[in-house]
């Protein structure tokens, strides 16, 4: 009977329509293990406060352990009549321990403080799983940066050729946002580190239960300080959903580049066969589906976040049933990333970069013009003039359809007396890249140092 947790005041059980709407076991059953862990801690708090004697505590823990076993083996499952994971597990406990003992466990707690605690426990575990998967991706990108340490590619702004950069520098540029996501997860963990258990329905409990004992047993650093806030707020869940959405966006940006690099027009990469897909009609096709799914799923991750935020907006204190809607979006975000990240990392780890092709295109589009202007500055030409002179040089070369390095000495001198033949020293992509040797620059020495710095930062989180 679906009214099992609150039968006393009601003449009838819930209508079938209500029961169907109200039911959450199809998604909250994954909290069962956390619920039972919480119940053991709660039983010990009840014992300490004098509501269970030694024998009862022993019997209660044994019954919870047996229920855990049945849950783990699938022997015990939520029934059609169970509203949620909490009611199902109470039914299971009573089946094992009997109504007399089993009926004592619920004293001093509410599903409201339970659920707020359990979701934190689940998210905490998955934050560690996600962090591990993100580290794997960072490692794969850093390994590609190391394997292609000398490769030079066209650096772009506005998707137009801008200045040559090291491929390694570009790949590391995708690592740093992921490092910040790791740091965000870490930071999130600190805010999620308070236990709502003991807050009851909203106002606390009257039984003198030691919430600190429960918090400690459940691995929380502290007890949440306000019982209303503890049961009514889900910003901790929304923040987690934000980090997953940001991760999705960071993957999507790289995905978009891989898709472009993989086109015939670019020809910068080849995807490994085992990380690409074919077409059912076009025999020649080899598609970057992993990257496309990453790009697509980022929309879903954003949707989960915005949906949750919309649910939370305007909710009065304290608990409202709306809060049940926090679970499916964030569970979906976790599932999405835990499936996506391993595939994405495999794709990155097995990418083959066509560094000859990148090299060939790196000087195109007059991408060394800034180097000429800065060379002129080193000859003490004011930058404003240097910019103008270089612009004239580009325009001259463009009219003739040649590169800057191919402009002859006489023409150089005609464009500006400052343009002596020595300017050609900066007209190589190697020279250009090596000269950007300030902190954070693309010079090979800097990029090597950056790789070491990255490894340090990842180890710190
Ligand atoms: N299933 C609910 C949730 O996920 C917890 C139960 C609280 N229900 C209630 N009627 N107070 O938020």
From TrEMBL:
Its EC number is 4.3.2.1. It is found in: Cytoplasm. It catalyses: 2-(N(omega)-L-arginino)succinate = fumarate + L-arginine. GO terms for molecular function: argininosuccinate lyase activity. It is an enzyme of class 4 (lyase). The keyword Hydrolase does not apply. Keywords: Amino-acid biosynthesis, Arginine biosynthesis, Cytoplasm, Lyase. Transmembrane segments: none annotated. GO terms for cellular component: cytosol. InterPro entries: Arg_succ_lyase_C, Argininosuccinate_lyase, Fumarase/histidase_N, Fumarate_lyase_CS, Fumarate_lyase_fam, Fumarate_lyase_N, L-Aspartase-like. Its main location: cytoplasm. GO terms for biological process: L-arginine biosynthetic process via ornithine. Pathway: Amino-acid biosynthesis; L-arginine biosynthesis; L-arginine from L-ornithine and carbamoyl phosphate: step 3/3. Residues 16-303 form the Fumarate lyase N-terminal domain. Pfam families: ASL_C2, Lyase_1. Residues 366-434 form the Argininosuccinate lyase C-terminal domain. Belongs to the lyase 1 family. Argininosuccinate lyase subfamily. This is Argininosuccinate lyase.
């Amino acid at each position: 009977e679906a009214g099992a947790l609150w039968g006393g005041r009601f003449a009838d059980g819930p209508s079938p329509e209500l029961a169907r709407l109200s039911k959450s076991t199809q998604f909250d059953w994954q909290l069962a293990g956390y619920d039972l862990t919480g119940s053991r801690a709660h039983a010990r708090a009840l014992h300490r406060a004098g509501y269970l004697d030694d024998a009862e505590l022993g019997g209660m823990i044994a019954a919870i352990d047996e229920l855990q076993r049945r849950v783990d083996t699938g022997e015990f499952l939520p029934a059609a009549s169970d509203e949620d994971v909490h009611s199902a597990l109470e039914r299971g406990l009573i089946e094992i321990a009997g109504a007399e003992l089993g009926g004592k466990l619920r004293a001093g707690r509410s599903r409201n403080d339970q659920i707020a605690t359990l979701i934190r426990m689940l998210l905490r575990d998955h934050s560690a799983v996600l962090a591990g998967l993100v580290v794997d991706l960072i490692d794969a990108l850093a390994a590609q940066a190391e394997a292609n340490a000398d490769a030079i590619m066209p650096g772009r702004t506005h998707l137009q050729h801008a200045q040559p950069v090291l491929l390694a520098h570009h790949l590391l540029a995708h690592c740093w946002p992921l490092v910040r996501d790791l740091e965000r997860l870490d930071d999130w963990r600190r805010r999620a580190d308070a236990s709502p258990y003991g807050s009851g329905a909203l106002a606390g409990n009257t039984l003198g239960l030691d919430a600190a004992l429960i918090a400690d047993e459940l691995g929380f650093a502290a007890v949440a300080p306000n019982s209303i806030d503890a049961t009514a707020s889900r910003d901790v869940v929304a923040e987690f959903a934000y980090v997953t959405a940001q991760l999705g966006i960071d993957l999507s940006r790289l995905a978009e580049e891989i898709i472009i690099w993989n086109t015939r027009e670019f020809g910068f990469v080849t995807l490994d066969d085992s990380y690409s897909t074919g077409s059912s009609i076009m025999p020649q096709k080899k598609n970057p589906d992993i990257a496309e799914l990453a790009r697509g799923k980022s929309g879903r991750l954003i949707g989960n976040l915005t949906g949750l935020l919309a649910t939370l907006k305007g909710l009065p204190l304290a608990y409202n049933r709306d809060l049940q809607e926090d679970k499916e979006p964030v569970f979906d975000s976790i599932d999405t990333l835990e499936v996506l990240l391993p595939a994405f990392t495999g794709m990155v780890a097995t990418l083959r970069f066509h560094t000859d092709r990148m090299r060939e295109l790196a000087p195109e589009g007059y991408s060394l013009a800034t180097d000429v202007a800065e060379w002129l500055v080193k000859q003490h030409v004011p930058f404003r003039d240097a910019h103008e002179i270089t612009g004239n040089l580009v325009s001259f070369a463009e009219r003739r359809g040649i590169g800057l390095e191919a402009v002859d000495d006489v023409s150089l001198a005609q464009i500006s007396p400052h343009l002596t033949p020595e300017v050609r020293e900066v007209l190589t992509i190697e020279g250009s890249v090596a000269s950007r040797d300030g902190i954070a620059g693309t010079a090979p020495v800097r990029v090597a140092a950056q790789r070491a710095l990255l490894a340090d930062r990842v180890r710190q989180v």
